[in-house]
Amino acid sequence: MMQAPLAGRKSADQKTLVEVSGLYFGGREFIVAAGPCAVETCEQMDVIAKGISGCGARLLRGGAYKPRTSPYDFQGLAEEGVPILAETGHRYGLAVVTEVVAPDHVAAVAAQVDMLQIGTRNMSNFELLKAVGRSGKPCLLKRGMSATLEELVMAAEYIMAHGNSHVVLCERGIRTFERYTRNTLDLSAVPALKELTHLPVVVDPSHGTGKRSLVRPMALAAAAAGADGLLLEVHHDPDHSWTGDGRQSLTIEELRRLMFELRTILPALGRTLNYRFSVDEQSRTEVMISGQENHLSLAGVMPG
Amino acid sequence: MMQAPLAGRKSADQKTLVEVSGLYFGGREFIVAAGPCAVETCEQMDVIAKGISGCGARLLRGGAYKPRTSPYDFQGLAEEGVPILAETGHRYGLAVVTEVVAPDHVAAVAAQVDMLQIGTRNMSNFELLKAVGRSGKPCLLKRGMSATLEELVMAAEYIMAHGNSHVVLCERGIRTFERYTRNTLDLSAVPALKELTHLPVVVDPSHGTGKRSLVRPMALAAAAAGADGLLLEVHHDPDHSWTGDGRQSLTIEELRRLMFELRTILPALGRTLNYRFSVDEQSRTEVMISGQENHLSLAGVMPG
Amino acid sequence: MMQAPLAGRKSADQKTLVEVSGLYFGGREFIVAAGPCAVETCEQMDVIAKGISGCGARLLRGGAYKPRTSPYDFQGLAEEGVPILAETGHRYGLAVVTEVVAPDHVAAVAAQVDMLQIGTRNMSNFELLKAVGRSGKPCLLKRGMSATLEELVMAAEYIMAHGNSHVVLCERGIRTFERYTRNTLDLSAVPALKELTHLPVVVDPSHGTGKRSLVRPMALAAAAAGADGLLLEVHHDPDHSWTGDGRQSLTIEELRRLMFELRTILPALGRTLNYRFSVDEQSRTEVMISGQENHLSLAGVMPG
Amino acid sequence: MMQAPLAGRKSADQKTLVEVSGLYFGGREFIVAAGPCAVETCEQMDVIAKGISGCGARLLRGGAYKPRTSPYDFQGLAEEGVPILAETGHRYGLAVVTEVVAPDHVAAVAAQVDMLQIGTRNMSNFELLKAVGRSGKPCLLKRGMSATLEELVMAAEYIMAHGNSHVVLCERGIRTFERYTRNTLDLSAVPALKELTHLPVVVDPSHGTGKRSLVRPMALAAAAAGADGLLLEVHHDPDHSWTGDGRQSLTIEELRRLMFELRTILPALGRTLNYRFSVDEQSRTEVMISGQENHLSLAGVMPG
């Protein structure tokens, strides 16, 4: 393994909480981010934000800058999409996360949202990693679709080495020969990354499978594998999504059912859903007495 | 998809129970098979069988015929290993499963054990599939390490087309570029196979990850993904296993901890652990009134 | 790398010639084996054998035992196909090679043909490798579709450790994510295998690409990469082949054009096409004075 | 396949020449670009440029902006490296090509060099593709290490849709399970891309194999597969290269030997090496009467 002095785990019990506007990735709460592939209209975002908020999701996701394989496909609303996402999410008490695709967009987007996303195609876009590092904004870093775990850890190291320790890793499926699923969701990446790093790890079963029917079981499996949360594509009308990614999007009703099942299974795994963790002394103590989470440190904050 | 009239699922609620000496794969019980990579000695098998039996495992696994990459590695005890496995397992009330590697071994092995295993290297050894089909013996069919799900279903179809409907599928990891794990365990295969077929599906997280530390989280994840059971490598002294596969074997103590955790999580998933299902009318009724399992059929038995 | 004392190369200039009925794989002649996917009828084989013989091919290939993904597809003429292949090939002065798929077929097939083939699905069918080893018959060993080069070398080691040193390796494409081609033909396997072993290496661009239009350029590239020959699917009427593999089969006319091009390019690579190498002293000397082939040994014959 | 109206081939004989400072990719000349992984010093570049020029290479390559997996590895001389590359190359009559890694570097780099390179990690960095498209500068577009051919064609379409038709595609190896080589060089991509597009295709056997000993045979094989040229890592002192990529770099002496062999084999393939193609009427005619290249069009020039 390459040296990753910042991202690498230094002891078996080292764990870092990453705060995103009052939410803590890596803590006891299992955090669900949900939303459409792309920001389409104010009305669409309002319906979806309201829906996912009512189900217990914590973050609203939605792409304004969309990396698309074809230059002729809908490329996202770009700078017009970001404020729609931010205002809608915040209206419903949701933090917002969106993808950045070029170094010179980072500052403007970071000023409006709670968390920046580095997409799978940009995991090794080192200039973008550096820019996100310099921004200091919490970052959701997706694994490249053919990246090794070591490379993912080194991508996190880039961001951290440029001044930003607020990094959450995301497994989103890798490319294999299998054709029934769009990608092969590598859930072993969750415990493996927790051996390699001290960073929180979330899972995107929507892109990871590419099939709506597989999202629910893989979301439960991600929780059981020890993931700290989920990134889910949810659309109020998947069959008419502008990006054609509806085949992997849950409806709001399906999200509700999934959240119900997560609520059933998570306690057996020592986790909770949508329990607003606050870093006052009481809850901090509560976390520290739990067996598994006794050496938490807050990203960017010196322990002491 | 190719036509698989026997293995393919004909309706969304079609599910088949596969009986193995009184155990039912695909029923409410989540079934754990455990044991060493290879049958080594009577003493080794006795210690392990006693240990896993005490933890709640149902089947004893162990290789007598070992497919090894090098012709100079320990090739298993062959025909001498089968009776050791069978006698030890049965002494502790465990069903036994072992791998067959050539068509002309099938009959002799089938006469002694409760379930035959087709290993990953032989999933497309069609002559072996036909021989196991003709044997009528319950079969654990492992996915080839680079086999698509469609090919796995067609391998099951071979066995079934030759007269044996008692097939349990097993996901055991596929080959990818990732080097931290030995294979990439494709848990999405579990719900995907349940869409494609009506057969039970189990998971082997030992070979699937190749790392002892990843077996536990992936076993829990497999359960959450909907698997019907697990195949686990367990050795009383992994560092001295004759095949060198100790790095992916649990100790008996580690198995005990995993079984405890499974017992905690399974009820939230509507499953039980080590609850001896018997096909008398009462329990059958019990199964039939549960929401998820209302169209069970018993492999090899005409519904009616 | 694992230890392969028999298949592994011991010095940079160690090279082995494998004789197949008067032909020498690994010598100066670049050897072309051609023929249909499956033996269908006497008439089909006659037309094809006549055609390929007229183009300069040296071996007639054709499957009698066909490993097919579906049990409902044409499985080959089995024991009835072997004599058709053998008689037709020998009538036109062609050596014949055919696949064996079960240990107990080996002796009967070996008695009729000049070379046995181990197919990609059986590269790790160790019982079959042992049986072919014991047969002593020259063997064309195909790389498993997800086998590493090390595993291919170890498969050769199995055959050799069981008494048969007449092994020719065959690259036939590996499984990747690419979907335009059926497999990804790994031509770097040719020089890599020549570093790892002293055995001849041939290439199958028909299965390796799965597309007729790519066979010609990849056949030329294989020659340039240093391959010792080709295995080509050729059918007189590809659109009506019984196995549906016609989309990767050349017509006889296309084979003729390819042979013409090979004849143009091979001299620049220090090779010849269809120059019947005979092991009398004169030609042996001729080979030994050529720069690249000065430490030839004949498989199964002690150098001295 | 997605629609690629600009990059896609519209007829079987459509072919485009891409001019780079008087050189024509896609014409009869087989073009070799060579140079070190990274620009290190003026002295290093001088020795290498002089050496490769003397061997018949046409372009000098060398990275000023180096995408490195670790943030702690040498990241290239950046804007200081570009003029060193350009001046040294031009002093020896070589065109120069270098990688760009961020949209806002493109204009400055384009002003100094003859050709921009998009590296494998940035093939789906669509903002960079757009910037290179707007620059109008000839572009060497490398296939992403896990990109399908369709995705590579669509990446070219991005550049072309933003105004730049001077695109040369480059196969540089894909990620597979094989560990003996660093990547698996997919030479079938060469004829496949020539079916899918009308653009020139070159091959990088240095990154494609990661092993110096495999570069030579794979370079010859690339030529035989129909490639229009090569991109080669060459260093005067590979064991002391600053990036540690010396294990895949040829020495100048090894390049000389390879060029000699290419000169031997290319005529049999209807190609020449280092024959300065000039678009005066005479040579144009010469090209047009050759059988295979009769519908050439010059990139960016309307046929008429």
How would you sum up this structure, described in words?
The structure is a homotetramer of 304-residue chains. Chain A has 304 residues and is an alpha/beta fold. The first copy, chain A, has 2 domains: 29-273, Alpha-Beta Barrel (TIM Barrel), CATH 3.20.20.70; 279-304. Chain A has 10 helices and 12 strands. Chain A has helices spanning 42-55, 81-91, 106-110, 126-135, 149-161, 189-196, 205-209, 212-224, 252-265, 281-289, and strands spanning 15-20, 23-25, 29-35, 59-61, 95-99, 115-118, 139-142, 167-171, 201-203, 229-233, 272-273, 296-298. In chain A, the strands form 2 sheets. Chain A has an 8-stranded parallel barrel with strand order 3-4-5-6-7-8-9-10, surrounded by 6 helices. A 3-stranded mixed sheet of chain A has the order 2-1-12, with no helix packed on it. In chain A, helix 1 (42-55) packs parallel to helix 9 (252-265). Chain A is globular and about 45 Å long. The two termini of chain A are 30 Å apart.
